[in-house]
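Hi R.,

Here's the input for the F0G complex you asked about:
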Amino acid sequence: MTVPLIERYRDRLQVPSDAEVVTLYEGSTPLIEAPRLSERIGARILLKFEGLNPTGSFKDRGMTMAVTMAKAEGAEAVICASTGNTAASASAYAARAGLHGVVIVPEGKIAAGKLAQSLMHGAKVISLKGNFDQALEIVRDLTEKHPIALVNSINPHRLEGQKTAAFEICDELDGPPDALSIPVGNGGNVTAYWKGFREYDTSPLLYGFQAEGAAPIVRGERVEKPETVASAIRIGNPARWKEAESAISESGGAIEMVTDRQILDAYRFVASEDGVFCEPSCAASLAGLIEYGLPVADDGKTPETVVCVLTGHGLKDPDTAISEGPEVVTCEADSEVVADAVFGAGS
Ligand code: F0G
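And here is the predicted structure with F0G in place:
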């Protein structure tokens, strides 16, 4: 029997024993060897493929916790601001729990797959004429004034659930990796990983990456109009800014930024060379290692094993994939014409 995440780590999560667990059987995602990336980067690269969660992103780890607790506390509805993945996950878990889901997303800036998910799970989707940061401010305000549970990562239960990814990595490797590379938006996930690693008495180097056009933490100031092809991390005022900064500095790691071009190149490389299709934002964690090289610890050692967190599945964002991929070859329905296209010059 597949075991819900909350049951697997019940001794490390504060869930009341009589609470009904809301689960879609999240977690237990694979660590995938990436030989071509490893060769390119010069270390053993393992991909923690969070795109294999039930709604296709790491958000499900936190959402099983947040929705279980919301339901236990008697909530009838949940709400979040989102660049798409939190919305998809909140919508699915709300449906599962029999709660109303409301999601506020920036108009025209969420990937098609994520929108499709929220709609199919029956959530009320509000398309905001504004960006994620504005959506989060509105959601904070609404939840103060109305009886609706907030399930963004400012909800502490979300981070509790997300820390389990660090447990899984340590359990599988029989200890921590030397370093972890991760894309940073609101800073919730990197904060959660650090919490998980510390609870296991480990401290790998944390290496965080933001997109150049949405890099408030790297720049040390709010970005009023964040822009990047990596729409999931298009955030100018991270909700977990300070916690993310502390986690990274306590680990001895660093946070840097990468350009959209570097993100897209890494996104295509890992799909075409190592066969793993992630969404563009995740590729920031790969692009950063390619661009900046391996982080060096305080003791001067270079990591040998690095886990890169691929936070969401590539199928979430078909539009970026189709525009970045090679040309499609159109052919008449004739075997010779097709043979020519397959085997002929220029194929
Ligand atoms: N990768 C993906 C695919 C994401 O969807 C997000 C955040 C992140 C990385 C960054 O994680 O915010 O914890 O630092 N997505 C949020 C959302 C903002 O609304 O889906 P973070």
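One thing worth noting: Residues 59-72 form the longest helix (14 residues).

Cheers,
M.
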